Structures are given as C-alpha cells and as structure tokens.
Amino acid sequence: MKSEPAPPGDPAPGPTAAPQVRARGARAGDSASRARNPRRRARELAVQGLYQWLLAGGTADEVLEHLREQDGFDRADRAHLDALMHGGIEQAGALDAAIARHVDRPTRQLSPVEHAVLMIGTYELTHCLDVPYRVVINEAVELAKAFGGTDGHKYVNGVLDKTAADLRPAEVAARRASGAQR
Q1: Nearest residue to 16 (alpha-carbon basis) of 51, 91, 88, 66
Q2: Tell me, what DSSP letter sits at residue 99?
Q3: Is the Cα torsion angle 22, 60, 46, 36 positive or negative in sign?
Q4: How large is the angle between the packed helices 169-180 and 152-167, nearest 10 degrees?
Q5: Does domain 31-180 have CATH number 1.10.940.10?
Q6: Nearest CA-CA partner of 82 in 135, 128, 113
Q7: The dihedral formed by the CA atoms of 30, 36, 37 and 38, expressed in degrees to the nearest 10
Q8: Residue 47: which residues within 8 A CB-CB, separation 6 or more?
Q9: Helix-strand-coil percent breakdown of the chain, rounded to 5?
Q10: pTM of the model as a whole
Q11: Which DSSP symbol is given to 71?
Q12: Do residues 153 and 111 touch, judged by C-beta distance below 8 A?
C-alpha cells in the first residue's frame, strides 16, 4: 500500500506516526465499524497499529497512544488489542520466522498491510488457543479484504492455513479428519 504525500503545509509524519490505513470504503466512525464486536475492533486497530509500526517503528505504547485517537477505540477489546500490539511488536522476529516458511519472498518485502494481518493471525494461532484456528484464519481474511490489496486475502488465507498446520497440528488434523468423514 503506497502512502500519499502530505498536502502542502501539513507536517511530515514523525518517527511514530505513519499514514493511516483505513478499511476500503470505510469512513471514520461509520456504522459498520460501530456494529463490530470488541475483539474484531481490536484486530482492526491492531492492523492499523502494526502497519504504522512496520513503516515508522516506535514502541507498542507509542503506537497505542496514536491509536487512541481513532474512532471506535473505546469499543475495542482493550486486553486483546494490548496483547496483539505488544506481542506482535515484541515477538516480530518469531512471528516472521513462522510466516517465512510459507511466503514466496522475505517478509520485509510483503505489503505492510498483509504483513500486519499475517502477524496478527500468527500471534493468535500461537497465543490465543481459545480461538479456533479456522476463526483466526477467517478473521485475518476479513481484515485483508477490508484493508489490503485486491487479492491479498487469498494470500493471507494460504499462508495462515499452512502456518496453522505448523502451530496447531492436532487441531488442524482433527478438523481435516472430521471434514473428510462428512
């Protein structure tokens, strides 16, 4: 995703500011955003925060401070958002290592939106064992559809499906076995 240059007279983004990524067709505070559940809103904000971090760096707390300005921040599952942001940034190397096995180029060459979505999905596959792996993948696909490029969701789906088989082999095998019996 390319960032647009700042209009004349606007200050350039600082070290912890980055261009905002917004869901396709979404306006700040739109009714669809308000209707989403708190965990989904946390994931949406985490995509924006990790996108910012991938482009501009900074700490999780700096990024979260910037995210507080977003519409709907108060409707997000704050604990989940904190876990995604702190865990995503602190464990970026390990998350990228898990992702790298299933991508066709170095993770630093991925679109920052798809990279952020893959980091969120991989973090949840690793640490949110209460969330079924299919839910993790479906949520990531929806994030990629909303924020990413035209076919980015297909890429995210394929990578996370393979990553899930690595990180949750018993759950994936059980799901596939039950699907084969139907």
Answers
A1: 66
A2: H
A3: negative
A4: 110
A5: yes
A6: 128
A7: -30
A8: 21, 113, 116, 117, 120, 143, 147
A9: 65, 0, 35
A10: 0.81
A11: T
A12: no
Task: Please give the structure tokens belonging to residue 130.
Answer: 């209460």
pLDDT tens digits for 72-121?
999 999 999 999 999 999 999 999 999 999 999 999 999 999 999 999 99
- Picking from 91, 19, 85, the residue whose alpha carbon sits closest to that of residue 52 is 19
Residue 44 one-letter amino acid: E
Q: What is the token pair recorded at 99?
A: 């992702």
Q: Please state, in angstroms and rounded to a whole number, the distance separating the CA atoms of residues 22 and 44.
A: 9
pLDDT tens per residue, range 28-40: 444 444 446 999 9
Q: How far is Cα 108 from Cα 128, in angstroms, rounded to an integer?
A: 25
Q: Secondary structure of 108-161 in the HEC alphabet?
A: HHCCHHHHHHHHHHHHHHHHCCCCCHHHHHHHHHHHHHHHCCCCHHHHHHHHHH
